[in-house]
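Thread: quick sanity check before group meeting

JM: Hey all, I'm pulling together slides for Thursday and realized we never actually wrote out the predicted structure for the chain we discussed last week. Dropping the sequence here so it's in one place. If anyone has concerns about the input, flag it before I start.
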Amino acid sequence: MDTSKYKIGIIGLGPVGMILAHYFRKAGSEVVLCGRAGEQVELIKEHGIRLTGLLDESSSFTEVHSSIEDLLKSDIDI
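JM (edit): ok, ran it. Output follows.
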């Protein structure tokens, strides 16, 4: 599967959502994020996601939303 062809929407910015977003982005997909916590959404918009511990990797995202309605306006594929 060529993941770079897809625009993927991730709903939920907990640990699993952030790991999925990072790795889909790393695989070349365009990723759109949606989370409830306004402060977290703003921090991700400004600084991206950073995974630390066994790894030390980060990624940035241009589309981060706080509502599913806004996420759906982004014309996601998956």
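AS: nice. The helical segments are 15-26, 38-47, 68-72. Residues 19 and 55 are 11 Å apart (CA to CA).
JM: adding both to the slides.
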